[in-house]
Amino acid sequence: MKIFITAIGTDSGKSFFSAIITEALKADYWKPIQAGFPRDTEYVKQLISNKISNFLPEAYVLNTPASPHWAAEIDGIKLKLNDFVLPRTENKHLVIEGAGGALVPINNEEFVIDLPQKWQIPVILVANLYLGSINHTLLTLNELKRRGVQLLGIVFNGSSQPSSEEIILKHADVPCLLKIDQEKEINQEIIRKYAEELLKNL
After folding, report:
1. Which terminal residue of the chain, N or C, has fewer Cβ atoms less than 10 Å from its own Cβ?
2. What does it catalyze (predicted)?
3. How far apart, in Å, are the Cα atoms of 160 and each of 7, 131, 140, 181?
């Protein structure tokens, strides 16, 4: 199975969750676009304790921590959807982590969410909980539905807010796959704990 991890915004917890699902499935991991440093691939790799997962090189590594379309322009690169090719992997599972939120642009016409739509692979949406996150989450869900992108479920990241979670799930019509607490420290043990929880819901 190939799964694309997207989010309602930057710093929603995509890399944290990508490490969890990579550990749970003993999957390979790939981040097509890296904008700025440190690299998310290295972050995820250090959190994985299984010996099966492989970490594939990014298609593009951009120097500026900014929207990919702008970071690419600074580096003198033109990102185009058709230039992205799914890597071949012997592992039956591949976790693909997007850059920023679903509608982060890769150029003036195309967006990060165009990648799973092009490849026809399902998406898991990471939503961090804050004032305004209901609006941002429902807008993202509506865009996924409009595009016909298959949504496997939602992951809530942060201190529990039951009223927000309830209204989002009511309109999402997909399950909550995992709730991630506000952890003081993120390490391999924490990743394994959440991986075990996630497997019950996949």
Report:
1. N
2. (7R,8S)-7,8-diammoniononanoate + CO2 + ATP = (4R,5S)-dethiobiotin + ADP + phosphate + 3 H(+)
3. 17, 13, 20, 7
Known binding residue 188? Answer is: no
pTM over 0.85: yes
Residue 6's nearest CA partner among 31, 27, 23 is 31
Residue 67 marked in a binding site: no
Q: How far is CA 62 from the centre of its chain?
A: 18
Catalytic residue among 2, 31, 45, 80: 31
CATH of 2-199, one of 3.40.30.10, 3.40.190.10, 3.40.50.300, 2.60.40.3390: 3.40.50.300
The answer on whether 15 is annotated among ligand-binding residues is: yes
For residue range 86-118, list pLDDT tens digits in order.
Answer: 999 999 999 999 999 999 999 999 999 999 999
